[in-house]
Amino acid sequence: MNKQQLVDEIKRLKEEKNAVILAHYYQRAGVQDVADYMGDSLKLSRIAAETDADMIVFCGVHFMAETAKILSPEKTVLLPVAEAGCPMADMVTERKLTAYKEKHPDTLVVCYVNTTAQVKALSDVCVTSSNAEKVIRHYEGEKLLYVPDKNLGTYLKHKYDLDMEVWPGFCCIHNDVTKEEVEFAKSTYPNAEFIVHPECRMEIVEMADFVGSTKGLLEYVSNSDCQEFIIGTEKGIIHQMELANKDKKFHLLSENLACYDMKLTNLEDVYEALKNEQHVIEVEETIREQALKSLNRMFELTD
Ligand code: 13P
Ligand code: SF4
């Protein structure tokens, strides 16, 4: 099948099966273009909770599809590529977190949405990059543990002077950004604003004109009077930035800003997912109920 035939088949299958396609901004441009909804982790999880479709094809990584299943257990949730994971989500395990909790029974656990269902189930509240600041302020004065992203955790800890331990996990894409790359880009594009995702290290975040979730970054470039931007997050987001801002220029900070897992999904995989109803995401019910509590707590504190 050529590209147009694939797109037509995806559309036909979607209607036949009452399915919606959700895609994260880091997906390949061709996959973004067939999505019904795009968003950051928070927006996509809200859409998953609210849609009346019978089937959700989640073009992203495993924790995102799993979050959709936790919120919408009655729907069929499909992840087109079974191996598409998030290495950071695997940096905190159920076993290690249980051991920590046994040693620190008075500590509340705040988990990033980039975690497994088992870790969410062991946590008191979940956060995403777009609401972490809002959620965490409800817990000022408490003893906290933040898992697994040391960069977002350290940023929050210092900004709000929190009594918070931070797990040593990280995103291998954002964590690798260096000061030298930023300095070089700023000197190459002196009129550009530098914007970053909070998964970058604190010394990088401190050099930025704006820090935000993927959705926050997109909104920022559309609302800013500036015409040129240096992008300190995964390269896939530039597709939507260009579509929404035809007259503005976007410079990717480094070609290394490419998430291997996000790029595993192709249009063919989306087509196969819909045709064969693969790969079905399941979450064991007792885990799901517990994990749902930490997600609902997040929604209560931010709605
Ligand atoms: P967002 O919630 O900002 O989309 O981030 C998800 C992610 O995995 C960033 O690396
Ligand atoms: Fe995970 Fe980083 Fe990829 Fe986001 S960019 S999905 S945090 S590995």
Automatic annotation (TrEMBL):
Residues at which iminosuccinate binds: 24, 41, 112-114, 129, 197-199, 214
Keyword hit for Coiled coil: yes
List of residues binding [4Fe-4S] cluster: 86, 171, 259
Coiled coil feature spans: 257-284
Reaction(s) this enzyme catalyzes, per UniProt: iminosuccinate + dihydroxyacetone phosphate = quinolinate + phosphate + 2 H2O + H(+)
GO biological process: 'de novo' NAD+ biosynthetic process from L-aspartate
Name under which the protein is recorded: Quinolinate synthase
